[in-house]
From TrEMBL:
PANTHER family: CYTIDYLATE KINASE/PANTOATE-BETA-ALANINE LIGASE, PANTOATE--BETA-ALANINE LIGASE. The lineage of its organism: Eukaryota, Viridiplantae, Streptophyta, Embryophyta, Tracheophyta. Keywords: ATP-binding, Ligase, Nucleotide-binding. This is Pantoate--beta-alanine ligase-like. One of its GO terms (molecular function) is ATP binding. One of its GO terms (biological process) is pantothenate biosynthetic process.
Length: 83
């Protein structure tokens, strides 16, 4: 069941490594992917890896955090992404 979240985060990591810097666009694409897989997003945030403060544009290493409901199960995952 965690595969949709893991897959979405892997796609996000690839997008950042190929030049995506807009957090809003990245979050929207991941939310869409999870929704299409039957999940309901609880939260999706991109934060600075060191300060854990929310960022709008990716300029240095970040952590992408997601929680989503799949039926009665709440899944939480994150991924560190370096630029």
């Amino acid at each position: 069941m965690s595969l949709p979240i893991n897959k979405s985060l892997s796609i996000a990591k690839f997008a950042v490594q190929t030049g995506q810097v807009s957090c809003k666009e990245l979050i929207n694409s991941v939310m869409q992917e999870i929704s299409e897989s039957g999940g309901k997003i609880d939260y999706a945030e991109i934060e600075d890896q060191e300060s854990l403060e929310a960022v709008e544009e990716i300029k240095k290493p970040i952590v992408f955090c997601i929680a989503a409901w799949f039926g009665k199960v709440r899944l939480i995952d994150d991924i560190e992404i370096s630029v």
